[in-house]
Amino acid sequence: MDLSFCINNNSFPSENVEIGNTLFNDAIQGVLNLITSDNKRIILYYDSNNKNLSDLEIAENYTYENFRENCEDEDLRLLLYEIEDKSPALDELSEEQINELSEYNYYITGEAFDKFPDVYGIAWILDAYLLSLATSEKWLPPELKINMSGEHGKYITEGISLKNVSTSEHGLIHLSANTENSLEEILTPHLASREMIEWHSNQIKENKKIINNKLKLAVSRNFNGGLPLFETLNDGDGLREIRMHAYAGGAIRILYKNIKKSPNQIILIGFIKHSDNEGYGKNIPLANEIYESSKQ
User: Cα separation of 254 and 241, whole Å?
Assistant: First the structure.
């Protein structure tokens, strides 16, 4: 399974080389603390204008490449050269992902707009960690609360939470939270159909991680809200969907419905689509059939 990080440009560069070296080393140790036997590779997405990761300015006249060359820990230096560089990050997004990114403005709750707000949207779309320098208290929390505004500055009530790594401790915190729970444990007190459990169990690890994270978020909101996470389906007889991008292309859709005379939901079925309407013709009737069967 891949470990994906987005370079949080807003936290770079540091005040000077000495501080930059210390802070970046601490952040990279956080990345190391997240590595397990299941991780196949580490990917760094850098939202840059035709620059690559080597050019990332940690401090004035001190780049990622300088950090690698000066690293005295041979194992760490080898790892730094093995990290996969995805820059410019926008080149790695699909047309659908870029369209979603362009629909919203992203900003940290209670803060002014940052110089590079798109990095928050990219991290959200890719289900990636932010990799930050702890150059201010703003970058010290292990999670950053992000709000969105839409067309003409319209406020979107669906805030998002991004996992942030700026210290070695953050890696340990996130590693502990990554312990895989069963689908039933994630959804409690809500329910999952037998078909949903079976579909979930057959997903690749990368997609299962994305699904679990979005379901945890949905549960925390009691499945209430609108785009970009939720949407009510037209002609779906009360069906709603949870929306997310799939690993390596396509989109995941999970259909659910309120259990009558209950505040809880039943998660009915999931599918992966590669075009706008793909999968709905089959899965909407299937979801309603599963729902009716669950009442018996």
Answer: 5
Task: Label residue 205 by pLDDT band (50, 70, 90).
Answer: confident
C-beta contacts of 38-42 below 8 A and 24+ residues apart: 38/1, 38/205, 39/1, 39/2, 39/3, 40/1, 40/2, 41/2, 41/3, 41/82, 41/83, 41/84, 42/2, 42/3, 42/5, 42/79, 42/82, 42/83, 42/84
The residues, ordered by sequence, that sit 6+ positions from 126 with a Cβ below 8 Å of its Cβ are 4, 6, 45, 93, 97, 245
Nearest to 166, CA basis, from 203, 129, 216: 129
Q: Which two tokens stand for residue 118?
A: 């798109």
Query: What's the DSSP call for residue 104?
Result: -
Rama region for 37: left / alpha / beta (φ>0; ψ in -120 to 50; rest): alpha
Write out the H or E segment, with its range, that includes residue 245.
Answer: strand 240-245
Tokens of 184: 């039933």
Q: Are 268 and 255 in contact (CB under 8 A)?
A: yes
Distance, in Å, from the CA atom of 212 to the CA atom of 183, rounded to the nearest integer, reads 8
Distance CA 163, CA 242 (A): 20
User: What is the tens place of the pLDDT at every residue in 51-110?
Assistant: 899 999 999 999 999 999 999 888 888 889 899 999 999 999 988 899 889 988 899 988
pTM of this prediction?
0.84
3-state secondary structure at position 243: strand
Q: Radius of gyration (Cα) for the chain, nearest Å?
A: 20
Supply 68's token pair: 């690698």
The continuous run of DSSP H or E covering 220 comes out as helix 205-220
Tally Cβ neighbours within 10 Å of residue 258: 16
Instruction: Say whether the peptide bond before residue 228 is cis (omega within 30 degrees of 0).
Output: yes
| Digit-coded pLDDT (tens) for 121-161 | 999 999 999 999 999 999 999 999 998 887 766 666 567 88
